[in-house]
Amino acid sequence: MIAKKYGSTAGDLKQYNGLQSDRLLIGQKLRVPIMYKVARGDTLWKLAGKFDSAVPIIKEANGLSADGLNAGQKLKIFPKKLAMDGKFVLMTREEFRDWIFNQKFTRKVAKVQQHHTYQPSYKQFNGSNHFALMKGMEEYHVTGMKWSMISQQLTTFPDGKVAVGRPFDIAPEGSFGLQNKEAMHKIEADAIAIENLGNFDDNHMTAEQKETIVTVTALLMLKYGLAPSIDSITYHHWWDINSGERVLDSSHGHAVKTCPGTEFFGGNSTASAKNNLYPLVRKKMQEIRGTLH
Ligand SMILES: [Zn+2]
Q1: Which residue numbers delimit the LysM domain (predicted)?
Q2: SS3 content of the chain, % helix, strand, coil (to 5)
Q3: Distance between Cα 111 and ligand 1 center (Å)
Q4: Is 153 in contact with 93 (CB distance < 8 Å)?
Q5: CATH architecture of the domain with range 84-292
């Protein structure tokens, strides 16, 4: 119905907004095509920025061959489309920032889990196979693990892109790999799982991926009203995978994973998280807050 109103299709509206399903929740902010009357001082570049479009998109939609605009001229402006493949949405940090602020979620989230994928690692990433790697992980989770779909909501890549996989309103599934299923479901119920693509016991993390992990984590803290702490940003390594008990740094005598890895912001300890990751996330939250007014 909304698609019709704006002379658009449901498929286009999904791609303008990175929507994973056809259902809309009240409060969801939507980008839609608009008609716009050019005012004095407007430029294609300014309008593209203002309406989440791009100069070539506006020029093509309106059959413009030159860059000049005249006051009073009417333009049809289409929003930029996000890169999507099925329910997967692949974004830059800037696109993700707009995406998360525009989305409406209903599930309560109190913790963000940090993981590394281990496999696939940097060796499998060729710069353009984000969706293929996402599908490969989903295939493994569905066929190998018998889960309903890809376990993690978010995947970060070495080039700094971030992909949404599992919808945010569905809890992760098996992300902690615990034997104690009941304990795991409890831990996962209010979690968002981030799988950072790479083997960070071996791969040295790129600066782009670091920046994305910090930015994405900061945006999640802001979206869900959280402050960085060992309760809100948690490492897989801090949990006994047999009992589901959170052991933090007292891993002696417990079965724990080396995840998110020894190269992940200084390593798996709570001291590393407190000294190397949380301060960066706090600083990024301040930066983002400063631009919201
Ligand atoms: Zn993990």
Answers
A1: 1-32, 34-77
A2: 35, 15, 50
A3: 14
A4: no
A5: 3-Layer(aba) Sandwich (3.40)
Q: Regarding predicted confidence, which is higher, 110 or 7?
A: 110
DSSP reduced 3-state for 162: strand
Question: How confident is the model over 241-289, as pLDDT tens digits?
Answer: 998 999 999 999 999 999 999 999 999 999 999 999 999 999 999 999 9
CA of 201 to the centre of ligand 1 (A): 12
Distance 93 CA to ligand 1 centre (A): 23
Distance from the alpha carbon of residue 261 to the mean position of ligand 1, in angstroms: 9
170 neighbors 185 (Cβ within 8 angstroms): no
Between CA 291 and CA 22 the distance in angstroms is: 31
Buried b (16+ CB within 10 A) or exposed e, 154-171: bbbbbebbbbbbbebeeb
CA of 33 to the centre of ligand 1 (A): 41
- Give residue limits of the domains in the chain: 2-82, 84-292
Distance in Å, CA 21 to ligand 1 centroid:
28
Rounded Cα distance, 121 and 242, in Å = 26
Contacts of 14 (CB under 8 A, 6+ apart): 20, 22, 84
